[in-house]
Amino acid sequence: DAGVIQSPRHEVTEMGQEVTLRCKPISGHNSLFWYRQTMMRGLELLIYFNNNVPIDDSGMPEDRFSAKMPNASFSTLKIQPSEPRDSAVYFCASSSGVVSYNEQFFGPGTRLTVL
Amino acid sequence: GNSVTQMEGPVTLSEEAFLTINCTYTATGYPSLFWYVQYPGEGLQLLLKATKADDKGSNKGFEATYRKETTSFHLEKGSVQVSDSAVYFCALSESGTASKLTFGTGTRLQVTL
Which DSSP symbol is given to B74? Predict the structure, then answer.
């Protein structure tokens, strides 16, 4: 199994530009999570989906952030417009997670730099 | 709400030293507890877990015991190696929440020769 796949691995953009991060979860997993990691705030859960449906988006910082999961094998996290404070590593994780002790499998992350 | 508190890092140890990283939690119900490890430039990966009180999770020489009476899940290893240098995250998942995790802030471990 290829594991969770994220693209791009690195993204450098200018303030005001739209950024789209992509994630392919592990086949057969029905829960998908987007996290943001910064030195200041640590690891934050932004949003998670169960069976392609957003369950909890309370961690999404503001309306500039949106996430979609059009099917079981693909999700996007979009930032429009981007700001320098959005610079962080964004992780996608998936789980077969219908029970609380199921492991989350993390992708390698996308390092976003907004200039 | 749920929360996880970890000891501040960085923790710097010599190879073969004993490691303890403290973790305490606050949760309603009966959470499952996890330790994840993040090596430089990588995503997090599960190190060990425990799903009920008094369970001991273990992997790669690391172990942690789920202590309900002290709401703790401290990570220990008897003899660390340079290759154990990483950031360690304690996390909990409350029952019935489809594996949604609440993470601690992470503890960086640096092991030197």
Answer: -
* Chain B residues with CB-CB distance to A91 below 8 A: 43-44
Q: Could you tell me if B4 and B92 are in contact, meaning their C-beta atoms sit under 8 angstroms apart?
A: yes
Cα–Cα distance, B48 to A103 (Å, whole number): 10
d(Cα A78, Cα A90) in Å, to the nearest integer? 11
Min Cα separation B44/chain A (Å): 6
Beta carbons within 8 Å of B97's beta carbon, 6+ residues apart: A100
Q: Which residue has the tokens 């709401």?
A: B71
Lookup: tokens for A100: 């609380």
Task: Determine the straight-line distance between the first and last CA of chain A, rounded to whole angstroms.
Answer: 36
- The distance of A105 to chain B (nearest Cα, Å) reads 7
Closest chain B residue to the Cα of A36, Cα to Cα: B43
Measured between beta carbons, which residues in chain A are less than 8 angstroms from residue B94? 100
Condensed to tens digits (0 to 9), the pLDDT of residues A58-108 reads: 899 889 999 999 999 999 999 999 999 999 999 999 998 666 667 889 999
